[in-house]
Task: structure prediction
Amino acid sequence: MLTQPMKALVVDDQPIVRRGLRRVIELEWDHAQVWEAGSLAEALRQFSQAQPDFVVLDLALHDAPGTDALARMRRLTGDVPILILSAQKDASHAQRLLQMGAAAYVSKERTGEELIPAITTVMTQGRYVPPELAQRLLTREDGGLKTTLPHELLTPQEYRVMQLIAAGHRLTHIAQVMQLSVKTVGNYRMRVLAKTGWHDNTELKKYCAAQGLGMPD
Result:
């Protein structure tokens, strides 16, 4: 059994979704204390005050697109587990987020069914992914069958640059989003092309579209 009171920080830019997630947690654990944040900036400010046992983080925040939210939150949270909510169902996307330090990957379509099992799992020192994705991840790694795709060669920062380029953003905008210099972002872009063998942004965008690696909804 999990100890009480349970403390959580829910991060989603849609108020109705935040309230729903909060209610699910409060119904499961008596006296649960749930803080809400409508943006990554707000979540970063509230984290120290809330001192949550876990964070529920939507990847589709207006001020932190894609994996940027997880990367920036992880720099602050330390050992506090982060549960990711995502509309994507791609196994490689889930694998990337787990590699970046996410403790759980929950499908938005099944949040009502999966959120509590996910929280219970990560609070007992485990990791959680939906059963269908878990099977696909095991298949990719079983018996030497694992194949390394081009985007799996990238570091978390390079992967974020790739996603933002694929979404049509210019280097100047990416630099603002990632809080880096334009020169540094340009260097990341060159590394992405060098590691993957793509010749330009057009090939990068075609690959991301084919693999379903666009920015999360």
User: Anything to note?
Assistant: The CA atoms of residues 5 and 31 lie 5 Å apart. The chain has two domains: 7-141, 150-211. Confidence is low (pLDDT under 50) at residues 142-146. The beta strands are 7-11, 33-37, 54-58, 60-61, 64-65, 82-86, 104-107.
